[in-house]
Every structure is written in structure tokens, then in C-alpha cells.
Write a structure and sequence with these properties.
The chain is an alpha/beta fold. It has ten helices and 13 strands. The chain has a single domain, classed as Rossmann fold (3-Layer(aba) Sandwich), CATH 3.40.50. Helix 3 runs parallel beside helix 4, helix 4 runs parallel beside helix 5 and helix 8 packs across helix 10.
Length: about 325
């Protein structure tokens, strides 16, 4: 297939694109290469998948999905069979500082993608939602049957808005749109604003790591390879709906730190802090719907995942 991947220089988008290319699909990539975090890391990810802008099998456009005119031109020039829409302004905490970036990228940008798919007859779309839509839901594990109308961050509110728009475009225009609520993705080539890389960097530099809610946090850490396999399984097998995609096994944050210390060979200096605004104490995915629809089953244990991440980080940080 000819598959458009938005956010191709991002953590998940880049890994999905690599897997699609590996199995023989043509990939058309979009990314605005913004400076929310290291552009150097994003460029390194693009080099990793070796997309040649002159190759007939793949190309990258460095554009913003908020630019409707340029986006339309790409849909006109490239025969697109399906879209994996992963471009977004990420991060719960940054949404407190720069809310407009989230409205622009996550809502306006997603609207533009849906509009172009409608106008150019692209029926199959997989897009990134987030476990953040569950807010501080007291019922665990989080099920797609649970209410998600009480977000506790603007980031979560924009992701819920994307789900609502997806339902509308599916209903009105017959688009096959599938949303994935990702749960705490980690692994090699991850985001520098997320805990694994923040922790690894400070541990190795002998600086304190910030441990929020005094360490009383649980996260459904999900390894990138499992996320990629689940995303592509949905692309291949599903026609609509919203699915959780996680490991389905919440882990104490302190246990995560302990394993990371072991793999880096150095103890962390811990700075215990209260809960941050917009954060939640636990995430836990009920993935039964995804398992039933695709046979999804995560394979990488936390111990193996952190080992792989630490090995990559030690190599990457010394290059």
C-alpha cells in the first residue's frame, strides 16, 4: 500500500514507518520538525529509516499539517491508500505552558487530515489518541466502555476532540477511522521529554530525577515494538472504533527506576515531589477489545524493554 505517515520523525511514527517499509509498503512521510524537543534526534530517526526524498518508494515532506493548502497538494500528487496519523503536539505538562500549540496541531491539524481524506477518497485512517482521555478515572483497568468526558489536561481534551471528530467523519462520509489510545510508550529512540530519557540523562550526569506524587505512581509501560505491531495490526484488520493499546500491566514507578538504575549501573538521586497538575496516579489498559479484533498480545517484558532502552541510550548519548 501507499501509506501516509504523519509525524514520521516522531517516536511512534518513525518506528511505524520503519516497519511498514520493512514489509514492502511505500511510505509518504510528513513532519514539521518543530523544536518542542531535539530536532537533532528527529533527524537521526529519519536517517535511521533511510528515506530518500528522491526515491519512488518513499518520500518525506517537511510541512505542518495545519497548512491545509500544502497538505491538499500532497494528497493531489501522491496516490494515498491509507493514513497513519500520528502527528500531534505531545506532552501533558507542556499543555499548561503553550495551550495554543495543542489546539493548532491536535485539533486543526487532525481536521485537515480528515478533510483531505474525505476529499480524495482515502477511506482508511488510523490515528493516535491517548490514555490521557481517561482523566482521573477511579475505575481500573481503563476500558473503552468507560466515560471519557472529564479530561484533566488540555492535551487530553484535544485528544478526546479528535475522537469525536473521527466519529463524525466516519458517520457522515463513510470513512474507516480507528483511534488508538496509547499507554506510556517507551523504548529506543524515545522522546526526551518522557520519564525514561529524562531519568537516564540525569542518572548518568549525577543530577536528581524528579519523582512526582512522592513515587506513588503506576504506569502501564508499553514497549515500542509492541505498540508498532498493534498499530499495524489495526491498520490491516479493523474498520472503525477506539482501542486501548498498552501492555495491560501497571508497574510502580519506583520499580521502573530500580530496573533502569541496574541497567545503567548507577543509582539515581531522587527528588520526591507532589503530584503535578494534569497528571494522574495510575494508568492501566484493558486491551481485550484490541486482542479480540487483531490478536494483539504484547511480548516485551519491562525488564527486557528497559535493558534494550538503556543499551540504546548509552550508545546514542555517546555519539
Amino acid at each position: 500500500m501507499n501509506i501516509l505517515v504523519t509525524g514520521i520523525a516522531g517516536f511512534i511514527g518513525n518506528a511505524v514507518a520503519a516497519k511498514l517499509l520493512e514489509r514492502g509498503d511505500k511510505v509518504i512521510g510528513l513532519d514539521n520538525m518543530n523544536s518542542y524537543y531535539s530536532v537533532e534526534l528527529k533527524e537521526a530517526r529519519l536517517r535511521r529509516i533511510c528515506l530518500n526524498p528522491d526515491s519512488p518508494d518513499s518520500r518525506i515532506y517537511r510541512i505542518d499539517i495545519c497548512d491545509k493548502q500544502k497538505l491538499t497538494e500532497i494528497f493531489q500528487s501522491d496516490k494515498i491508500d491509507a493514513v497513519v496519523h500520528l502527528a500531534a503536539q505531545a506532552g501533558v505538562r507542556y499543555s499548561l505552558e503553550n495551550p495554543q500549540a495543542y489546539i493548532d496541531s491536535n485539533i486543526t491539524g487532525t481536521l485537515n487530515i480528515f478533510e483531505c481524506c474525505k476529499d480524495f477518497g482515502v477511506k482508511r485512517i488510523v490515528f493516535a489518541s491517548s490514555s490521557s482521555v481517561y482523566g482521573d478515572n477511579a475505575k481500573i483497568p481503563f476500558s473503552t466502555e468507560d466515560r471519557t468526558d472529564s479530561p484533566v489536561s488540555l492535551y487530553a481534551a484535544t485528544k478526546k476532540s479528535c475522537e469525536l471528530m473521527a466519529h463524525t467523519y466516519s458517520h457522515l462520509f463513510g470513512l474507516n477511522i480507528i483511534g488508538l489510545r496509547y499507554f506510556t510508550v517507551y523504548g529506543p529512540w524515545g522522546r526526551p521529554d518522557m520519564a525514561p530519557m529524562l531519568f537516564a540523562k540525569n542518572i548518568l550526569e549525577g543530577k536528581p530525577i524528579k519523582v512526582f506524587n512522592n513515587g506513588n505512581m503506576k504506569r502501564d509501560f508499553t514497549y515500542i515494538d509492541d505498540i508498532v505491531n498493534g498499530t499495524i495490526a489495526v491498520l490491516d484488520n479493523c474498520n472503525d472504533g477506539i482501542f486501548n493499546i498498552g501492555r495491560g500491566e501497571p508497574v510502580d514507578l519506583m520499580r521502573f527506576i530500580e530496573i533502569l538504575e541496574q541497567e545503567l549501573g548507577k543509582k539515581a538521586i531522587k527528588e520526591f515531589l507532589p503530584m503535578q497538575a494534569g497528571d494522574v496516579p495510575i494508568t492501566w489498559a484493558d486491551t481485550s477489545a484490541l486482542e479480540k479484533a487483531t490478536g494483539y498480545h504484547p511480548k516485551i517484558s519491562l525488564e527486557t524493554g528497559i535493558k534494550n532502552f538503556a543499551k540504546w541510550y548509552l550508545e546514542f548519548s555517546h555519539n
